[in-house]
Design a protein that fits this description.
The protein is of the alpha/beta class. It folds into 2 domains: 7-125, Rossmann fold, CATH 3.40.50.720; 145-242, Dihydrodipicolinate Reductase, domain 2, CATH 3.30.360.10. It is 30% helix and 27% strand. The chain has helices spanning 16-25, 41-48, 61-64, 81-90, 105-117, 132-143, 177-193; strands spanning 7-12, 31-38, 55-58, 71-74, 94-97, 122-124, 151-158, 199-206, 212-220, 225-232, 239-242. A 6-stranded parallel beta sheet has the order 3-2-1-4-5-6, with helices on both faces. The chain has a 5-stranded mixed beta sheet with strand order 7-10-9-8-11, covered by helices on one side. It is globular and about 50 Å long. The model has no long low-confidence stretch (mean pLDDT 91). It holds the Pfam family GFO_IDH_MocA_C3. Residues 135-233 form the GFO/IDH/MocA-like oxidoreductase domain. Residues 7-125 form the Gfo/Idh/MocA-like oxidoreductase N-terminal domain.
Length: 243
């Protein structure tokens, strides 16, 4: 019987979403948690106590260079993703990065180039691509079972109370509902239409900090139209703009 080698994972960042990843990894026969790194050792220790993580690391450089880590899962705020993913790839690690993988197309293109140059695996953690219902719907579309797609409509939102300085509303941390929630609707449209839009119209409300907390996007593709929306349900918006 052949024993598959387990992928040894290191977790970068000890926030809420990292807990979800670590809870799930315990059920995988092909992966194991090797180390967790956070800005402070106390935060890493508190996180690791929940999962019996072998190694606790203060700072991220030690994780990039760890000899017993094959892949790094990045679970930090959006604006840090590019820098951290680039450092991990350059260090020879495979990378799974929380969505959005970057905050600009240019940064994403650079990461793709780095992954190719270093022969490393790079992936955005868009879990919705792997939902059984989504996979089945995609199969039906590809086979022609439900006909040709003319429209995609997707909405996503959940309650986020406005708190001054909170990451969700902090422009310095790439806050706003588009990158937190709207990215899921964009991903669904891209997955099923599989084209680049020719034209898009965006309507949005802004929170007091200047980031959007209610956004609707209409995108015209060569062969279809997508109507997408995202919202912080408890948002305190103060104006609406059409662009």
């Amino acid at each position: 019987m052949t024993v598959e080698k387990k992928v040894r994972w290191g977790v970068l960042g000890a926030g809420r979403i990292a807990h979800t990843f670590c809870k799930d990894i315990q059920h995988s026969q092909f992966a194991e948690l090797t180390a967790v790194a956070s800005r402070t050792k106390s935060a890493a220790q508190q996180f690791a106590d929940n999962y019996k993580t072998p190694e606790i690391l203060e700072g991220y450089q030690a994780l990039y260079l760890h000899p017993n880590v094959d892949a790094i899962y990045i679970a930090t705020p959006h604006n840090f993703h590019f820098e951290q993913a680039a450092a991990a790839l350059k260090a020879g690690k495979h990378v799974l990065c929380e969505k959005p993988i970057t905050v600009s197309p240019e940064q994403c293109e650079q990461l793709i180039q780095l992954a190719g140059e270093n022969n490393r695996f790079l992936m955005e953690g868009m879990w919705s691509y792997f939902l059984p219902t989504i996979l089945k719907a995609k199969e039906w579309v590809n086979s022609g079972r439900i006909g040709k797609i003319h429209q995609v409509k997707a909405d996503f939102g959940y309650p986020v109370t406005f708190v001054e300085g909170d990451r969700m509303y902090n422009p310095a941390l790439a806050g706003g509902c588009l990158l937190d929630m709207g990215i899921y609707t964009l991903a669904i449209a891209q997955y099923f239409i599989n084209q680049l839009p020719d034209l898009s119209l965006v309507s949005h409300k802004l929170a007091k900090t200047g980031v959007e907390d209610d956004l609707t996007l209409i995108a015209q593709y060569p062969d279809a139209t997508a109507t997408l929306a995202c919202v912080n349900a408890k948002a305190n918006a103060n104006k609406r703009m059409l662009t």
